[in-house]
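Let us practice reading a record.
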Amino acid sequence: MRFAALIFVSLLSLCEVALAQGFPSRPITMIVPFAAGGTSDVIARVVAEQMSAALGQPIVIENVAGAGGSIALARAARAAPDGYTIAIGNAGTSAATYTIYPNLTFTPDSFTPIAMVAKTFGIIALRKDFPAKSMQEFLSYAKGNPGKINLGHAGVGSSNFLICKSFVQAAGIDVTLVGYRGAAPALTDAIGGQIDGVCDAAASVAQPIIEKLVKGLVVGSTVRLANLQELPTSAEAGLPEFEAQGWNGLFAPKGTPPEIIARLNAAAKTAVESDAVKKRFADLSTVAPDTNEHAPEVLQQLVTRDVAKYGKLLEDGKK
């Protein structure tokens, strides 16, 4: 009986190795938890193009917006663990969401990390005709008009929502946060003057700031961004407590064979180290992971850290 069991396990392992060696044999779907045009979508498309070249199969982007990304990740968690459905997530969708939506059908353990693919920087940008020209003027205006300023974000649970919450808590102001189905629709309304500003990542909002479609107020970083040299850091703006450096990572459903995870991880590493991705990331004020940050374990550590970090931020915000 024990011998038969050992044979079964051995055959199963051989089958998994054979499956991984033939992977991928058809297109892969990458689920993006937001509308097209936002930070996660832009990063996903840039990385997917180079991963496709490395894997020899197309990676098809599927935008599934709603509920701060939880609809998309619920779908990803239900997918077959065969490597043909993966998802891109961030600190919002893959960490803070567990505090915001306590009755989710999935948990952090529903996913197997593949790789971190990008580091992002949060920015507060205002409509171009907003009366404040500096952080001091903005805070003075906000405190004199409690609840009247409205800032858009990509939906409750998104990384942009966390940028908003971090900023408001650090500033100690009362503003109205307006959720959208993605970063792009929020930014469109800020450009059009329908809302006062947005909490967004540099990948989405840097170019509109450069083109003076909106005006940058602050970047939640310790260093100025290369293509936004005039935009002050949080410390320079007088609000050092505002910190908004995030990440994007790829995930597969729990149970995906380690050999397939390794194949996807290698493709992701090749992608983010390519000249094409590095150039595009530079244009987006986004940074690729360091050489010691490619392993799936690093992404898992980020998820574990940020579940606790944003759980505390959001709970403190209710007090």
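A brief commentary: The domain at 121-219 is CATH 3.40.190.10 (D-Maltodextrin-Binding Protein; domain 2).
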